[in-house]
Amino acid sequence: MQLHDQALDPAILSEAADWLMRLSEGSVNDAERQDWERWRASSPAHGQAWARAELLLCKLQGLPPALAMAALDRPNNPSRRAAMGKLATLLALAPLAWGSWKLNDWQQWTADYRAPVGERRDVTLADGSHVTLNTDTAIDVYFDERQRLLLLRRGEVLVQTAADPSPVARPFRVQTSEGRMQALGTRFSVREEAGHTCLAVLEGAVRIEVRGIGEQVVEAGQASGFTARGIDGLKPVDKSSLAWARGMLMADNMRLGDFINELSRYRNGVLRCDPAIAGLRISGAFPVNNTRRTLKMLAQTYPISVTSRLGDYWVMLAPA
């Protein structure tokens, strides 16, 4: 039986509930926050209990924003401690499917190379090819006598291929759940999410191959995408979408709701935008390695307010 299928000690769930309550009150100092981090990392059971707490918080996203925030915004209410005291029971009843929670994705943790949420990683492969992993990305690398294969388990990569040093010119391929791409001496990015792979070619060309569907060559300056059922048409590369490789997130007359969805990839926790301002158009260059600074920049530039709880785990954008 795997850990996420086992019952957790009620005492540990109670500790998780207590930490959740203390963090939500927003009064913890740096030392206390470090105590919480040590508690969470001290055992797999503690990590699982906190993951259940995170999952429960995500369920609050289904509430109207005003109600969801009100549940976390009553630090002086004498009944709040009693209400939060029931949280341990709710955590015990959390669905066993919590094991699919991305922070505990076994596939990611066993990958050859990975970049955690909010980080990027540069990797030089055995053949000299260079791969940059974006936030929350995991890859496996398989080199044999026939091919050089990069398996993108999740996330996004920027690839600069190198000439094969072996006597046999092995093709360089990238595989996702939807299909395969073969580099034709090139620099390109691949992003996989929700059953769809996006490809952008900066140099050279890449051939998309979807079994049972067909092939399509994407030249430099072009982008395309595909699922297991078909290949998209060609379109110009949006170079701003690759700004993440320089640590930036670019917005050019972008909907705030879409921007927040993209920014949420670079941080743990819940980041929400009130529907009342989701259509607000924004522009600018924002750092992805400091999402707190990015949110502050938004609040200083546009008529929005940023409210955070649980040590910045829960962040809500609303009209100013």
Automatic annotation (TrEMBL):
Protein name per Swiss-Prot or TrEMBL: FecR family protein
FecR protein domain boundaries: 112-207
InterPro entries: FecR, FecR_N, Ferrdict_sens_TM
Top-level taxon of origin: Bacteria
Any one Pfam family match given in the protein's UniProt record, by short name: DUF4880
One Gene Ontology molecular-function label: sigma factor antagonist activity
Residue span(s) of domain FecR N-terminal: 15-55
Annotated Gene3D superfamilies: 2.60.120.1440
